Amino acid sequence: MEPNPVKSFQDYFKELKDPRAKNAKRHELLDIIILAVCAVICDCNTWVDIAEFGHSRLEWFRSFLPLPHGIPSHDTFGRVFALLNPEEFIRCFRLWAESLREALGGQLVNLDGKTLRGAFDFASGKNPLNLVSAWVSTNCLVLGQVKVQDGSNEITAIPPLLKVLALKGCIVTIDAMGTQREIVRDIRHQGAEYVLTLKSNQGLLYEGVVESFKEGLKTNFKEIAHDCYETLEKGHGRIETRRYWTITDADYLNYLDSEGEWQDLKCVGMVEAERLHRGVVTKETRYYISSLSGKAQELGRAIRGHWGIENNLHWELDVAFDEDHSRVRKGYGAENLAALRRLALNLIQRESTFRKSVKGRRLKACWDTGYLLKLLSAS
């Protein structure tokens, strides 16, 4: 007998508490979850789509799922995921994702927020759903997500997410919203390094870093401990040059952080990006603080890795999964469906034999149950 392709789902989701009353449990909770995962992989974006997909593959699903009462209705899918505790569901998801990844020593973990605008409900005054996700850029793997509470911002959602992740030996990157002293302490407490974007909202620290690099460039960094690194990329009619500088000079760092508020601050960085496209040159300069040793190439790799959460996670969720247009709003449905998309994306990204886009692989899984089985086996 072939091994059950959904065994790891059963292992990690079997302890999930069923939110339904006893007399309403016509369908097994695990069956519902596995059906939904398969359907979301196969380009289904609504509860109606998910139920219809289940009916179209009923005999195949019966080969490895009990399904004592057949395929649940779309109302059942919607009701279950609207009631399901998202914190418990995400905890199971996180433990499952941790089981997929290899040891993360030295790897990049990017944290960033994304708003699901379609979840906004003007009639009830329900705000759009805002989620902060953790993304391993080197593995193309979502590790977890936390909802930003209504009336709050990403700053409050980042610490709970950091707390539950296994980050020892990793490099954590966050944009300017997460450049907070408490968040730095949380990252270091987890045994990880940090690379954080620095913008003008940090006041004197930002101004001091800008002035330090101005002075350094003016004197060619004479008697200032520093490092530099440059990359040149060509493609699609563009030429992009990126120059990275770091300052590790103790006198400068003590001046910038005289109170020692930024734990284990070892370097500050500057990136100058210059793009030539159709005869037009554009320039952009960004600044960073970090606990890394100060090698410009290492800092540059971390910075480029952080951009991957936009290009390889948020972009895929909007383009391949049409997430920004999802109208699921009832109860916890939007949050749980978002987790299903990220779970599906993890499985799709791990399968590399069919070298097509994420959208193309979703369609192939819909047409070919053998390929869908291969994706499930990645779990």
Plain-language structure description:
- The chain has 379 residues and is of the alpha+beta class.
- The protein has two domains: 7-85 and 332-344 and 352-377, no CATH class; 98-318, Transposase Inhibitor Protein From Tn5, Chain A, domain 1 (Alpha-Beta Complex), CATH 3.90.350.
- Helix content is 43%, strand content 20%.
- The protein is built from 14 helices and nine strands.
- The protein has a nine-stranded mixed sheet with strand order 3-2-1-4-5-9-8-7-6, with helices on both faces.
- Helix 8 links the parallel strand 4 and strand 5 (193-198).
- The relative contact order is 0.14.
Topology:
Blueprint: H1 7-13, H2 29-41, H3 47-56, H4 58-62, H5 74-83, H6 86-100, E1 108-116, E2 129-136, E3 141-147, H7 154-164, E4 171-174, H8 181-189, E5 193-198, H9 204-218, E6 226-235, E7 238-247, H10 250-256, E8 267-277, E9 280-290, H11 296-319, H12 333-350, H13 358-367, H14 369-377
Parallel strand pairs: 1-4, 4-5
Antiparallel strand pairs: 1-2, 2-3, 5-9, 6-7, 7-8, 8-9
Helix pairs in contact: 1-6, 2-3, 2-12, 3-5, 5-12, 6-12, 7-8, 13-14
List its salient traits:
379 residues; 14 helices; 20% strand; elongated; nine-stranded mixed β-sheet; 43% helix; Transposase Inhibitor Protein From Tn5, Chain A, domain 1; single chain
CATH structural architecture of the largest domain: Alpha-Beta Complex
Shape, please? Answer: elongated
The CATH topology of the largest domain: Transposase Inhibitor Protein From Tn5, Chain A, domain 1
As a percent range, the share of strand residues is 15-25%
Largest sheet: 9 strands, mixed
Task: Give the mean pLDDT.
Answer: 89
Low-confidence stretches: none
Order of helices and strands: HHHHHHEEEHEHEHEEHEEHHHH
Assembly status: single chain
- Give me the secondary-structure category: alpha+beta
Count of beta strands: 9
Rg calc: 23 Å
Helix content: 40-55%
Determine and state the CATH class of the largest domain: Alpha Beta
Count of discrete domains: 2
Cα distance, first to last residue? 19 Å
Number of helices: 14
Strand order of the largest sheet: 3-2-1-4-5-9-8-7-6
